[in-house]
Amino acid sequence: MGKEKILIVDDSEMNRSILADILGENYYIIEAEDGNEAVELLEKMHKEIDLVLLDIVMPNMDGFGVLNAMNEKHWIDSSPVIMVTAEREASQVERAYELGVTDFIIRPFDSYIVRHRVVNTLLLYAKQKRLMATVREQLEEKEKFSSTMIDILSHIVETRNGESGLHVLHVRAITDFLLRRLRLLTDDYPLTDELITLISNASALHDIGKMAIDESILNKPGRFTDEEYEIMKTHTTIGAKMLEGESLRPDDPLVAAAYEICRWHHERYDGRGYPDGLKGDEIPISAQVVALADVYDALTSIRVYKASYSHETAIEMILDGKCGTFNPLLLDCLRGSADDLKKKLEGNVAEDMDRQEIRSVTEAALSGKAGSVSERTLNLLDYERRQTEIEAESANKDNDN
Question: What is the pTM of this model?
Answer without folding.
Answer: 0.54
